[in-house]
Structures are given as C-alpha cells and as structure tokens.
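Practice problem: predict the structure.
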Amino acid sequence: MEPFEIEALFTRSGGDFLFARWGRPMAPVVFGVEDATLDVIKGAIEAVSALAGLEVAETDPELGSNFMWFFFRDWDELLAVPGLDGLVPDLAPLVGRLKAADANQYRIFRFDEAGAIRACFVFVRMDAAMAEVPADTLALSQVVQSVLLWSDRAFTERSALAQAGEVVMLRPEVAQLIRAAYDPVLPAMAQDASHAVRLAARVAKMAAV
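Answer:
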C-alpha cells in the first residue's frame, strides 16, 4: 500500500488525520446472539487479535469488559439495557440520531490518557440487510473495524474483506497494515499524517518477504 492510500484510511471526513490502536488487551462480551454465532464472533476476535499481536483477556481490570457487542432489532432496545447510559454518554440523543439515519451499525471508542483505545462498543441492528450477511462475514468485518480507529470513510468504497471460494478473509494488504499498526516501536496514537509513511514502509517490508 502506498502512503497516500494508508493516509486516506485514517483521515476523517473533516480532514483530520487520526490513528489509534488498542493500548490494552481486549476483554470482549457479546449480547443478543445464540451460542453458535457467539463462537463465530469469538473466532473472528481471536484471528484478528493474533494477527495484531494483541492479547485477548477474560476481563479488563478497569472496566470488566472493554469490547462490548450488542445485537438487537430496534435501536430503542439500547435504552433498556441496564447501566449502558453510564458507559455511553448521551445515549438517548445518539439513539435518536441513529434511528433518524436508519443506521444498522455503529461503533463507539473510548481512549486512555495516551490516546490509545481503551474500549469499544459495537452496536448492530439486525435489519433485513444485516440478516442477509453471513455470520462469519459480519463478525470479521466488525472486528476489523474495531481493532484500529479507522476513518469514518474507510472501506466505504472497497471492503476490507475478500471472498476466496466459500471462505471470507481479510484482504492481504489490510492484514499487513493491521500487523504494521501494532509494531511496538510505533506510537499507539498519531495525529500527524507522516505516520502513514512509517506504516507504509512496514507494509512494504512484509510484502517483500
């Protein structure tokens, strides 16, 4: 991937470059799915975290769970989740905006003092479109979009995933970028677009191996 391609993936619609990765192990919990789907989500989390070299833990010492997934049929269901309004500020206005936009997914990130990701909340409304997406595709897509703070425009024109026969997988260049992003030499957060050059150099090195 060229530096300008990577820069675009972390440049928000307002024009600001912002990169962030997790600064602690993921401690996931999933609500609203059956056991079979839960296993698929767990597998996706383990695969992407292994790619990044990111640990998956049973609990987070500060939050208990810091990677929370919610599956539901209607956005109003979130308002009935006990304690969620304490974890997600201004939950009711957010639900109103998502309903007005007819959104079927949304992610909220929380950050530590260094700017690294400390928590992520994944909301998936199972409308007709989402119901048609295979569970493995849906799970992998959500994990990929949660492992880094991508731009709000990232993957709108081209998915991060690819189909190989009946198998859904990460596009190789996206997988390499995730690996590069978790290089311990690099900072967990960056606001300078020159960070894309550093990422591109590492991706190029992986591609050459």
